[in-house]
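All the exercises in this workshop are built on plain-text protein records. There is nothing in a record beyond a sequence line and a structure line. A learned vocabulary of local backbone shapes supplies the integers on the structure line. The question running through the whole workshop is how a given chain folds. Here is such a record, shown just as it appears in the course material:

***
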Amino acid sequence: MSVERNTREIEKDVVTDFREKLSYGSYLKLDTLLAAQQPISTPEHHDEMLFIIQHQTSELWLKLVLHELRHAREELRADRLTGALKAVARVKKIQEVLTEQWAVLATLTPSEYAQFRGSLGNSSGFQSVQYRAVEFALGNKNARMLKVFESAPADHALLEAELHEPSLYDELLRLMARRGLPVPAAVLERDVTQAYEMNEELVDVFVSIYSDHTGHWDLYEACEEFVDLEDNFQFWRFRHMRTVARTIGMKTGTGGSSGVGFLQRALELTFFPELFAVRTRIPS
């Protein structure tokens, strides 16, 4: 079927009557999804729509990141490392999208943002329960964060459950121990509600993997995939900090934080410290 007069005909078998059929819009609940962008500035400021969509789409991607990280943990528990790494690979691609999204928000100039920032009240990305859950799933636990969600029982329950779950890294280390590698007991028996901290003995275990990467190929690959995860997360944090700096300078955050300074300190947090420490110890 050719195109005539720059108009494409609809093929005869294309379904067009959806009175009794599932359509694209109804499957994706687009009536609900597209009705959720409701600026509150008065008068309504043009750029508030950008601000809302930026954060709503980020939350959708974070939902998928959590979905994949939980699946990866289940795969590790079942000794299916390949399946876990498939999920990690998907998370890495989502991280790239999340990081690039900051470039869209960065088109919002300080003058434009100032015209509706006051309408946000105390709402802040600091209060994103899914972002905190992702941090927890990767091992950066902080029980004090639960206080932020005491007024939202469902969010509080979600984060509390994640607080008590072994992290993705915990599950990798347990898999390594089941394979006979000498993972320190202090690591395997640690309190998983606490932030993961560096263990020097564990670095020795990773030295053995990196020194004989052909003999431990899938674990060696897993280590590098986890390094990618942390690098990507830090890139996201950095782009967030720089976007905030160019938009509000050194003003305090809407949620009461110090703003840029608070975000800068997040760059000092780590998920998999031994995977970076091992690089200094690999024999030349």
About this structure: The two ends are 64 Å apart (CA to CA). The mean pLDDT is 95.
